[in-house]
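# step 3/5: fold
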Amino acid sequence: MNLIRQPVKILFFFVIIATFLLISFLTDLVVRDRKKKLIAFSRIASFYGKISLILFGVKINQINLDRYKGNNDNYMIVCNHLSYLDIFVIYSILPSVFVANSELEEEFPLGAVTKYGGGIFVERRNRSRLLADMNNISSVLDMGLNIVIFPEGTTSSGESVSPFKAPFLKSAINTGTDVLPLCINYRYIDGEPVNKDNKSLVFYYDDNTFFEHFFRLLKIKNIEVDLEALEEIEVNPKMTRKELSQRTYDKISAAYVNI
C-alpha cells in the first residue's frame, strides 16, 4: 500500500506547492502595498498549510489557542522548533510572517514557501545586518501582523529545547508588542508515541537533506501534534532582551516533553 500512497502524496504535494507559488506570485505582482501584500501572503499560506497537513495526515490538538485566533491583537510568536512541519502547523492556525535563516532561502521548496508566505530572511551571524533585520521585523510588527521566530536558530533533535539565540526579541520591546510563547509537542506517529527510535521520521535535524527526510515522511499515515499557547508575556520598555528571552525559554521548555 505504501508503494501506492507515496507517489500519490508526492504528486499532490507538488500540485499544492505549484498552485500556492503561482497564486502567491500573482499576488506579488498585483498587490503593491507591503502591508496588504503580507496579509494576503499569510492568508494564502494559512489556507495551503491546512491542505498540506491533511495530505500529511497531521492532526493538531489546539491547546489554549481559541482566544488568539481571529482577534485584533498581534504578537511576536516564539516557538520551539523540531521540523519544517512546524511552519505548516502554525500557519494553519495563526496566519503569520515567519523569520527564517538566510540559508533557507536557497533551499527548495522550503525557501520558496517561506518567501511567498511573506517570510523575512535574516542573517543571524552577520552583525552588520542585525540592525537592518531588526528594523524590518519591527516594521512588520508595527503593521499589526504576527511575527513568528524560532529562537533556537535551527531544528533540534527533540531531546530538549535548545538555548535561545534571540536578538530579534528586541523588536518586540521596541514596538511594545507582547510575546506569545507556543510549544509544539509531536505526540504520535502512526499511533505509536514519539520516541527516540521513530522521531527522525518527523523531526528534521543533523545532516538530513529535505528530500531524504520528505520521502520518509510520506510513508507515515498519521501524525498527532499538540500546539499549545502558553501565557503571553507583556513587554515593557525597561525589559531587556535577555530577560525576555529567558522568560520565554522558561515557559516553553517547561511545557515541552523531552524525547
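# step 4/5: annotate
The first strand starts at residue 58 and ends at 63.
# step 5/5: archive (pending)
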